[in-house]
Design goal:
Layout lengths: L2 H15 L3 E3 L5 E4 L4 E3 L2 E3 L8 E6 L7 E4 L2 E2 L12 E3 L11 E3 L8 E9 L2 E12 L6 E8 L2 E11 L4 E5 L11 E9 L3 E11 L7 E6 L4 E4 L1
Amino acid sequence: MDPKFYFLMFLRSMPSAFGFIVRTPENAVVGIVGGQVVLDCQLVPAELPANVEVRWNRLKLGEPVHLYREGKDQPTLQDLSYAHRTELYKSQFRNGNVSLLIKQLTVQDEGVYSCQVASGQERKDNKVMLKIAAVGLNPVIQLTGHRGSMVELGCTSKGWYPEPKVMWLDGHKEELRKREVTENKVEMKRMEFYEVNSSAVVMQDSQNIFSCVIRNDLLNSMKGV
């Protein structure tokens, strides 16, 4: 028989002979505050080992995010901050799918997660990064003061994550020069969301129309007024 046939048969049998591999996305997964996200985790070959244990952990977190052991979920052993917010697709276990669903996302959910699968003496894992994002409220522009022949405009907004970028544009959609933007303060409030407070000084008799634009680069989304 052709030796190539034996070689191909050997390659096809390698995953079973050498156990299984855990695969997760190489790129970060992005979730939106208040929404839900799936952290993908697949076994190769696509079949679940016997007496399997599936453990999802988050780096620097003591208790598991989700634990499946002895044929069922173990909610009493998971970190309390994830209670009633996580699910495994157990109907997809036979296809090697051990992905994790996280619901009602918060900023605190951001971090590096580990998908760990164990069977007997064999234990494999892989990691995936979860980034959290939020688009804040529409910015509000107000006249905040006078400086001789100049007037000061203020732009405020809140509810952004991660830290957004702030730009002032004139009527030609060109960004104002740095000396015209007197303050660009973006700070985190309550260790969760970022709040924007920005000011620009322009000529009082200017007929131009100015706008304040706030951008979330992670979501490639912006809001302006």
